[in-house]
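Example record

The entry below shows one chain as it appears in the dataset: sequence first, then structure tokens.
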Amino acid sequence: MPKKSTKTTEPEIIEHKALIPQPIIEEMQESYLDYAMSVIISRALPDVRDGLKPVHRRILYAMWTIGLKSTAKFRKSATVVGEVLGKYHPHGDTAVYDSMVRLAQDFNMRYLLVNGQGNFGSVDGDPAAAMRYTEAKMQKIAEEMLFDIEKNTVDFIPNYDGSHKEPTVMPARLPNLLLNGTVGIAVGMATTIAPHNLTELCDGIIHLADNPKAEVEDLIKFVKGPDFPTGGEIFDVKEIARTYATGKGSVVIRGICEIQEDKGGKFRIIVSELPYQVNKATLIEKMADLVKDKKLDGIKDIRDESNREGMRIVIELKKDTYPKKILNKLYKMTQLQTTFHSNMLALVEGGLQPRVLTLKMILEEFIAHRKEVVKRRTEFELKEAEERAHILAGLKIALDNIDAVIKLIKKSKDKEIARLGLMKKFKLTERQAIAILEMKLQQLANLEAQKITDELKEKKELIKNLKAILASPAKMLTIIKNELKEIKEKFGDERRTKINAHAVGEFTQEDLVPKETVMVMVTKDGYIKRLPADTFKTQSRGGKGVIGLATKEEDIVEHFFTTNTHADVLFFTSKGRVFEIKAYEIPASSRTAKGQSLANFLQLGPEEQVKGMLPMEDLGDFKHLFFATRNGIVKRVDIEKFQKIRKSGLIAIKLKENDSLRWVKPTTGKDHIMMVTSDGQAIRFKEENIRVMGRGASGVRGIRLKKNDRIIGMDVIEQGRATTNEQLLVVMKNGFGKRTGLSAYKVQGRGGSGIKTAKVTDKTGGIDSAFIVSAKLEQEDLIIISEKGQVIRLPLKSVNTLGRATQGVRLMRFKEKSDQVASVTFI
């Protein structure tokens, strides 16, 4: 048996590091701060230089490295996600795939960076298909983010396990931070930046590069405001400027809607564009809930008719509703109107410091980044050129001394001795000597030798140019501007989002609209448009004219007047209400266009039509508005009663049954009134005979009408104008007309039957229109429009002056026998 050892075993001594007591509050503060900074810098906030968060940067870099460029074949999205997870992004696959999906969604990204094939979600909130089903590759514009990355233009750092390297930032030829915007929630801070238009950004950056002292006021002339991928309309340039100047602010976005009228006279609202990041399905569901809960009356049906061609939501309205009022409620109660709050927070100082930035600061940071990229790229190309030139210089020496070189190599015992011999005899560097030893025999040919000489000359010229760039900040800036111009040319497009200069509810834009004379044309069915004053050329009396507009079936032109674009226009309806809009708010259209429904501008009721319009310019000495109805009722109201008319309209006159308001004219208080009927009767009386009434009054009788007769014209004979210089112009239904001196019409009391003003026959037709005109007609033209849309413009002086009881002369011939005069005006 082995003897037991008598040696005692000493206990093992284990050294412990000293434990330092730490208050739990301080420990939690430090740990939480470390976590917060990690989230801020490594996850949630974009870098101001390339506008990307780390996950997006890694997705694009992974696609670049595996060759998934715009010209490559599509590959499964799972391939990209696996590449990103395995090499660069130590997080969940869902986070990576969701981020990649957003880069491929045209309703989220103004300029797509990923070209997705398959189901990548929808504006209805539908999720993308699983990554094993979808495919992806880079968009052409995304390649601009990575060009020159292989030329040491940016720093690389080890990935999470040290097995690969990844870029800290992209070279980014695109101002991507503003281009596509971003949304990110970090710890204690958040960023929200709106997308913008590439063309505008390029112009703004080029302007800032040329004018470093330019302020935000100058830059917003180029970068006009956010440009959302879903279009819409944003309001208030003052708020946009405030956002750009401070880095914080908000803009109101509205969807694009149009009120249309169908053949049955019913209205519907068509939504063609939504505010940014509004879920279409949720919006429609909200509308339906409001209708169901009786919070929104007047809607009969809501349909989603959207397809690949574009957005289209149809809201059918009930017959007894005000379409404009319903639309305003939709703006107020649904996401058809939203507010986009901007907080332009991004990482600066190499991606280490979060800071709220102004528009100018963002553009300055981009220019500084591009300067650094161009400098490093130039240095890289210079180093490569110098290295190649160095080798070529050695090869040229060898070619110039080719026999001696061959002899030395043949006598050398081995490659090493040959290298040393070449270096010593021809004073070459080691690299030059190695290059000579590796030179192929074919390079000894004359043409090959010449190629080396030419390449050396080319490299020397390149080196000279590259050094000149590095030595000149101005040349570097020129390169940056030229690259931006190239990108603008390749990828620039038109703005999608409309900009309304004023806040919601404000519709005055005189500073943006040129002051010019225009013609306004309105049809009987309520379609309106604005035309330049010179649209219709002057023609001879008796001509056929030209087509004035493309009316709807069975529609005719009813109103036609001239005004100024800056003038307020009052619209008086058949039900005695009055609305007010600016002339420039009336849509400008071509001569043959139908125009837009008045329901887009006025809150008209069921079966309510505009029957009178009055441009409120140059009203100087006028004190009253004089009203006349179809049945001969008249009223006089102070003009001050019609200032600041609310959008929902005001009562202008209280109408009796089966009557409608037809004419409204401004008066001085001492003028005479002329009224003419379709059967050829006319009455002239003093306006003083009608007392001044309130807006809600019904009025009194102006002329006594025979059965089936009606008023077709009312005009004012202004105080102080000699009656010998004024005439009554009448135009009849079948194209006849004449002028008659006012001296032929005696002043009567109001309410009488009047006297004969024209001989009405089957040949002439009833009187259609009547006006008071001046006898001095040198520069005045008459414009007549027929029910079929035929138009003629002729000098007013070409209309004959005849007596009261005559039938007049032919002014217009119709192309169709059934056609008649519909409306008359003069300029």
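Notes for this example: Residues 549-554 have pLDDT under 50 and may be disordered. The CA atoms of residues 496 and 736 lie 51 Å apart.
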